[in-house]
Design brief:
By secondary structure, the protein is mainly α. It is built from 3 helices and no strands.
């Protein structure tokens, strides 16, 4: 049961970070192409990149823990199922954002 609860917590944290970063990112970067961003934006973008990467790592870890919780025969599977779904949504969403960014950047 502890593995499932940890998976759910990692899913909630990963989803909260991802949603916060995605909703705040357009407000931060209002720079026209060809302009040099101010110094403080470079630090902000570094922080945003770190949060997105950290959220992805937490979500993959939570997904693995959720799957481990599902495979264990002696454990209650409710939290493992919820954690696997939450972390799966975050991982798939981040993958889709990454692929959209690659396509949009061309």
């Amino acid at each position: 049961m502890a593995i499932g609860i940890i998976s759910v917590l990692l899913g909630i944290i990963g989803m909260a970070i991802t949603v916060n970063v995605v909703t705040q990112h357009p407000n931060i970067m209002n720079i026209q192409p060809g302009e040099q961003p101010p110094e403080e934006f470079i630090g902000i973008m570094g922080t945003i990149s770190s949060l997105v990467c950290g959220s992805g790592i937490l979500s993959v870890l939570g997904l693995v823990l959720g799957i481990i919780g599902l495979v264990q025969a002696t454990r209650l599977k409710l939290f493992a199922v919820i954690g696997t779904i939450l972390n799966g949504v975050v991982v798939v969403g981040m993958t889709m954002m990454f692929l959209f960014g690659l396509v949009a950047g061309r």
